[in-house]
Inverse folding.
């Protein structure tokens, strides 16, 4: 598959990346979101060190990912419970 060589700016540094055309959009959107979070942290906490800002951003994004993962697991369990209940109801009818 074709790879694109792109450069992504994060915390005032350029990072070269090789991505597929379908990934490029997501990489650029993600980089933009990271830059926005860094800007918010810089203003809110008066942090100036880019390394600290990147670490804070990474932590926030991982917490969000963990919450989503946890929510997905409970939704999956709810769906499974509903299917089991429907199967039980159907078996009583038949």
């Amino acid at each position: 598959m074709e790879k694109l060589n792109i450069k992504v700016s994060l915390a005032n540094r350029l990072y070269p990346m090789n991505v597929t055309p379908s990934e490029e959009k997501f990489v650029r959107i993600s980089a933009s979101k990271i830059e926005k979070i860094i800007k918010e942290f810089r203003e809110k906490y008066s942090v100036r060190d880019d390394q600290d800002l990147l670490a804070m951003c990474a932590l926030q994004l991982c917490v969000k990912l963990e919450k989503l993962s946890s929510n997905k697991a409970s939704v999956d369990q709810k769906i499974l419970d509903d299917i089991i209940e429907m199967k039980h109801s159907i078996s009583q009818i038949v």
Q: What stands out?
A: The mean pLDDT is 94. The first strand starts at residue 4 and ends at 10.
